[in-house]
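[step 3/7] fold_predict: job queued, chain A
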Amino acid sequence: MTLYWQLFITFFKIGLFTFGGGWAMIAIIQREIVDNHKWIEKEEFLDLLAVAQSMPGILAVNISTVIGDRLRGLRGSIVAALGTILPSFFIILAIAIFLTPDVIKNNDIVSRIFKGVRPAVVALIVAPVITTARAAGITWRTVIIPVAVALLIYSGIPVISSPILYIVLGAVVGYVMHVRKLANQRKTPVSHE
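[step 4/7] structure written:
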């Protein structure tokens, strides 16, 4: 089986069986790509996830596109993106053909199914947050940073509630820390024993 076909099947399965959008898919994508297929390392997955999050559009499609590109270039990104998109497309098409909005609203069984799926979706969203935090090295001491940023964004105060401000600030601080780390490495003498 070619890698293109494996990419398509893997992302098709992920797209078919994941409810709750991109964040709910992250844990499943990581398990498939990093653990099962071993196409990339966990650290690289987190880097690609950061790139996918910074791109405009749907997170699930972005991460599949980035991973596909990493593995097989443009063709890989197209195949992986199609694998992610097609299940949702077919499901929505079937719903549009067979179920009207009145049927969905007034059908007790459909309503109960959606109520039953909600807690599972919350768990699917929380799991990758915890996994990503662990892999990123966030400890109980450093958890103050994302909590503080979330509270500042939630505050609604115009000057400090813009997520763009914190993305730019995070990028600048990350760059400065990287430059300082490189400078410290150059200063440290290497022993030749």
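[step 5/7] annotate
The mean pLDDT is 83.
The two ends are 50 Å apart (CA to CA).
exit 0
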